[in-house]
Amino acid sequence: MIAVLGLIVGVVVGLFVRPEVPAVVEPYLPIAVVAALDAVFGGLRAMLDGIFVDKVFVVSFLSNVVVAALIVFLGDKLGVGAQLSTGVVVVLGIRIFSNAAAIRRHVFRA
Amino acid sequence: MSDDDTPQNENAQNENARNGTPQNEVPANGTPTSGETPVGEKQELTGRQRLAAGLWPPRVSRAQLIVAVLLFVLGLGLAIQVRSTSDNSALRGARQEDLVRILDELDDRTQRLEDEKTRLGTQRSELETSSDQAEEARKQTQEKERQLGILAGTVAAEGPGITLTISDGAGAVESDMLLDAIQELRAAGAEAIQVNDVRVVADSYFSGGDGSIEIDGTKVAAPYVFKVIGKPEDLEPALNIPGGVVQTLEKEQATASVARSQKIVVDALRPAKRPDYAQSSSQ
C-alpha cells in the first residue's frame, strides 16, 4: 500500500512541482523510466509468486536503470544511439509483457 | 486485519479440508507437522491473496518503504518525462544528433534567407535607381514639352518684352504691314508673339486688308496690340530703326508706339494640332 502511495505521490510531485532535470540526465530519462517499469513489473510478479525479496528488487531496479542509461550513453558515443535505445525499449517491452502475462494469470487466473 | 485474514483462513480451511485435516485440529494436536502447516499455507497462497494482503492493511515494513521510495522515483521520472514530452517543444526530448541536424537545417535556411534578402535588396536598389532615372527623363520631357509648347503656342508664356500698339485712324494699315512687323520682331529674337487675341506661331498667316485683317482666319481690328516676349533692348531698336516698321507705319498715317516691360504675358493659346502627313523621322 505504501509502495502504491509512493508511486502516486511521485507522479503528483512530478506533475505539480516541475523539477528541473539536469541536461546531462535528460536524454536518459525516458529509457531509465522504461527500465524502472520493467523492474517494477518484475517485482510485482515476484510478489505474486511469493518470492519477493526487497533487496533483489532494489538491486534490479537500480541496475536496470543504470544499464539502460549506460547502453543509451554508449550508443550515443558510437553514433547508434537511436537504434540502441529502440532495441532497449523493445527488449524491456517484451519483458514487461511477459511479466504482465504472469501477473494476469495470478490476478485473473486466466 | 480481520477482513484480510478471512480469505486466508478460508483458504487455509480449504487446504486443510483437501488435506483431510480440519483446521482447528492443527493447534489442538500440537503434532510436529503443525509447525509446518502454516508454512505450507503461506506457500499455497494464491497471487491474488498476496496482492490483497500487500495492499490492504498498510504495513510499514522495510520492504514497503524501500519499494515506496523507488516507486516514488519512478513516478517522478514518469511525470517529468510525460510533461517534457507534452511540453509542445519538440526539441526538449530530442537527441543530440537530431538537434545537430535541426541546427544544420536552420543554418541552411538562414543562409538561404540571407541570400534571398541580399538579392531582393539589390533588386530594390536597382528599381529605385531606374525609377530615379525615369523620373529624371520625365522631368526633361516635361521641360521640353513646355519649351515646345511655347513655340507651338499651346501654352501661355510670360517674361520681359515689349508692347507694340498700332492705331489705325485712317484704315490704312494692311496685313503685309503687320506681317513686316512680325518678321522684324522675329528677326530681333522674339520668342512669343500675340496680336490682340491671336497667338502668332510658325504657321500663322495674314489675310485680308483695308481695315479687315485676319490672322489665322480670326478677324483682328485696330488698334493692333502686339505683345512680344524677347529681349526688350533688341526688340525696340529693331522696330525703331530708320526706315523700319514704325517709320513705315507713320508714313501711312498710322501711329505706332513701343513700350518696354519686364513682364509681358502672352496668354492667347492655339490648339495643338496633330500633323496629318508629316511624321517624325527620328526613330
UniProtKB/TrEMBL annotation, chain A:
It is found in: Cell membrane. The keyword Acetylation does not apply. The keyword Zinc does not apply. Its main location: membrane. InterPro entries: DUF1290. Keywords: Cell membrane, Membrane, Transmembrane, Transmembrane helix. It is a multi-pass membrane protein. The chain crosses the membrane at residues 29-48, 55-74, 80-103. Pfam families: DUF1290 (PF06947). It comes from the Bacteria. Belongs to the sbp family. This is Small basic family protein.
